């Protein structure tokens, strides 16, 4: 038996549950509500409340807000709301159900322990199997002077990972698999790899039960997390002790630990839709609280949801109240959780107005860009939606970066040997000036990637010509059909040594091109040791060993892992790869050579840009400063071996740095172990990338005899060192 707590009027702001020494203030905004009830629960899985508080409209209602202060209520108390209002009509679109238990949209911690999605899809009482929120005291945390990092975008190397899948496999050997705490244990690995930011697939609380019926019958659930319901709460499934409402503390521990390691954190956020789906979907919070304002609905029948996301609903992001909710949420994660940036899923849906049409200057997008609290926060748009709106190179605003889907497609086609793409590849690896320069934007506007969570892994990109998604329960209908992949001669695993060698070389080619490109590179976690999903290009529902990273692969494919680590180091030591401005071909006064020089089959011979059969690119990239090394890069995706002369640069000698056709450790050579070429001539294997760095001759003449002898003693990257 719980005691009954006494009440005060309370305050309409802030929304949510605000804990103080005197108790907890509860506030929720519902414009059309006629009756509001607060239910208090002893535990996260209590089937019934220990106290129900019916709010008096004359005392507990201010404008749109309903509020009450519960005296002496301790932090950690679980709660939910019931709200009644006008009936559903085509004119109103309101979906009030006075018996439905609703989770607070402003909740800082939620529990899904007893959640049953099916019950929330039906009218009537679901208190015994609904989500609950907890009143959390956020003030008691020692940040140890931590603040969001300020790593310049041109120096960023992003690593996209899934919090659960990164450590859930037994081979991860962490104390708390699949959690924020488990990821903390892997920070030394991230440091060794050399990335600057992790980009986490959705970690705001999402509905794991949101999958199609046939998928649910296979006992599969929503794994990726693109089904958010509580935008202020970390996902309980990634917490060690969510029943104790530890969500905020555990996420903060992760952020603080990453920052101590010099690694920034970017959150993948899903403001384009919610887990409430369409008209037949569950009532979790917004449907039963805000009426029709939170979603785009039909002009003539507001019971009908507009779906530009492929998920049943579209958030009405440019409604004033919804826009304020989104921006306030983002500011909260920066101010209170110290995150460094956001990647917006299907961000183009945020550009749609209340009628569904595309707005030239959507208020929410500009509000995010102009927010003072978000001024130093990285903003990245997936600049398309599921209804054909494609805004890569044209997303509203100037500060936003964009997932460069055009880069991905061009590089994939080039890698598989397509004709007629070399010209576009040249533009893409130089920062996609055709997309961004005319707007006054920068190379950092493009987030370059070849693979991401959605689609083939890098291993599978060179192992499968077709998707193999039968395990998802949708008869292989789901997932993209246009993968631009190349299986190198066999579909799936093979014992053929030549095919396996080509696949390894292609993986190295992909990493070399990506990390030599201007713009911001993004790697998919596990690609660096050839993680495979067995040809499944849509593992959104595979919370199992198909998706989990098997860390044994990092030993088996240690040569690829070492190659990626060394490519990252190569990028970091060349400021010329991290330019903030676009290349122009202009002569640099301090060097007397152009910032970039393109070559044909002979040095300083102009390329044949009009030759559609060309599958070869060669260029020289000048160092930013006088003492910087220059780079000469050759990408040969043709079927022929080429013998090429290197350009002559006064007082400089070329050294081989990268040759993807060679076996480790000779495929990539650290600076201190590089050996000068005796002649400026090199044979480039087919389907290979070769990179040369040069050295000033006076430094070369002073090198000791042992300078080059270390080459034979190189060893593979050791995870345990």
Automatic annotation (TrEMBL):
It holds the Pfam family CBM_48. Keywords: Glycosidase, Hydrolase, Transit peptide. GO terms for biological process: glycogen catabolic process. CDD domains: AmyAc_Glg_debranch, E_set_GDE_Isoamylase_N. SMART domains: Aamy. Residues 160-571 form the Glycosyl hydrolase family 13 catalytic domain. Gene3D superfamilies: Glycosidases, Golgi alpha-mannosidase II, Immunoglobulins. Coiled coil: none annotated. The keyword Transit peptide applies. GO terms for molecular function: amylo-alpha-1,6-glucosidase activity; isoamylase activity. SUPFAM superfamilies: (Trans)glycosidases, E set domains, Glycosyl hydrolase domain. It comes from the Bacteria. Belongs to the glycosyl hydrolase 13 family. This is Glycogen debranching enzyme GlgX.
């Amino acid at each position: 038996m719980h005691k009954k707590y006494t009440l005060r009027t309370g305050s309409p702001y802030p929304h949510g549950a605000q804990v103080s020494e005197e108790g907890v203030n509860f506030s929720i905004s519902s414009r059309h509500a006629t009756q509001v009830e607060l239910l208090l629960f002893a535990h996260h899985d209590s089937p019934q409340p220990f106290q129900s508080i019916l709010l008096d409209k004359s005392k507990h209602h201010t404008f749109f807000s309903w509020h009450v202060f519960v005296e002496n209520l301790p932090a950690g108390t679980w709660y939910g709301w019931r709200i009644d209002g006008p009936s559903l009509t085509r004119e109103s679109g309101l979906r009030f159900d006075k018996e439905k238990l609703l989770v607070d949209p402003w909740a800082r911690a939620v529990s899904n322990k007893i959640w049953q999605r099916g019950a929330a899809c039906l009218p009537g009482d679901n208190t015994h199997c609904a989500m609950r929120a907890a009143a959390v005291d956020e003030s008691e945390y020692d940040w140890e002077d931590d603040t969001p990092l300020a790593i310049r975008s041109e120096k960023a190397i992003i690593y996209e990972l899934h919090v659960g899948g990164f450590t859930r496999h037994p081979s991860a050997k962490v104390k708390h698999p699949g959690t924020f705490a488990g990821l903390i244990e892997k920070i030394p690995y991230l440091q060794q790899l050399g990335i600057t930011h992790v980009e986490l697939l959705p970690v705001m609380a999402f509905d794991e039960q949101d999958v199609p019926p046939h998928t649910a019958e296979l006992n599969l659930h929503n794994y990726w997390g693109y089904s958010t319901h509580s935008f202020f709460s970390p996902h309980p499934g990634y917490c060690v002790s969510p029943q104790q409402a530890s969500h905020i503390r555990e996420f903060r521990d992760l952020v603080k630990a990453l920052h101590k390691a010099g690694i920034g954190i970017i959150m993948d956020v899903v403001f384009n839709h919610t887990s409430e789906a369409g008209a037949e979907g569950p009532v979790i919070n917004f449907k039963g609280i805000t009426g029709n304002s939170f979603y785009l609905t039909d002009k003539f029948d507001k019971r009908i949801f507009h779906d530009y996301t492929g998920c049943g609903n579209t958030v009405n992001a440019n409604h004033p109240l919804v826009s304020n909710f989104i921006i306030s949420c983002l500011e909260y994660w920066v101010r209170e959780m110290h995150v460094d940036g956001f990647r917006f899923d299907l961000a183009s849906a945020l550009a749609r107005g209340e009628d569904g049409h595309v707005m030239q200057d959507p208020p929410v997008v500009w509000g995010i860009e102009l927010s003072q609290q978000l001024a130093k926060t990285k903003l990245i748009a997936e600049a398309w939606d599921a209804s054909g709106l494609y805004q890569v190179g044209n997303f509203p605003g100037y500060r936003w970066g964009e997932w460069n889907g055009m880069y991905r497609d061009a590089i994939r086609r080039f890698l598989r040997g397509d004709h007629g793409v070399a010209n576009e590849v040249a533009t893409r690896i130089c920062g996609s000036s055709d997309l961004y320069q005319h707007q006054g934007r920068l190379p950092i506007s493009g987030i370059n990637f070849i693979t991401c969570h959605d689609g083939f892994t890098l291993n599978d990109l060179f192992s499968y010509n077709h998707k193999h998604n039968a395990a998802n329960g949708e008869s292989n209908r789901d997932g993209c059909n246009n993968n631009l992949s190349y299986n190198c001669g066999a579909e799936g695993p093979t014992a053929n040594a030549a095919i396996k060698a080509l696949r390894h070389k292609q993986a190295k080619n992909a990493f070399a091109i990506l990390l030599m490109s201007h713009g911001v590179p993004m790697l998919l976690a596990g690609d660096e040791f050839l993680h495979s999903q067995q040809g499944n290009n849509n593992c959104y529902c595979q919370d199992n060993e198909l998706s989990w990273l098997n860390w044994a692969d990092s030993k088996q494919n240690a040569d690829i892992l070492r190659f990626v680590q060394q490519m990252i180091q190569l990028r970091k030591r060349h400021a010329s790869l991290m330019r903030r401005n676009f290349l122009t071909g202009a002569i640099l006064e301090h060097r007397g050579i152009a910032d970039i020089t393109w070559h044909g089959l002979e040095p300083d011979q102009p390329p044949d840009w009009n030759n559609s059969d060309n599958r070869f690119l060669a260029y020289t990239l000048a160092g930013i400063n006088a003492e910087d090394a220059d780079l000469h890069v050759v990408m040969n995706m043709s079927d022929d071996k080429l013998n090429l002369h290197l350009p002559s640069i006064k007082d400089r000698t070329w050294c081989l740095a990268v040759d993807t056709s060679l076996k480790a450790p000779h495929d990539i050579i650290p600076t201190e172990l590089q050996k000068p070429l005796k002649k400026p001539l090199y044979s480039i294997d087919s389907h290979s990338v070769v990179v040369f760095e040069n050295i000033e001759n006076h430094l070369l003449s002073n090198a000791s005899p042992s300078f080059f002898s270390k080459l034979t003693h190189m060893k593979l990257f050791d995870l345990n060192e």
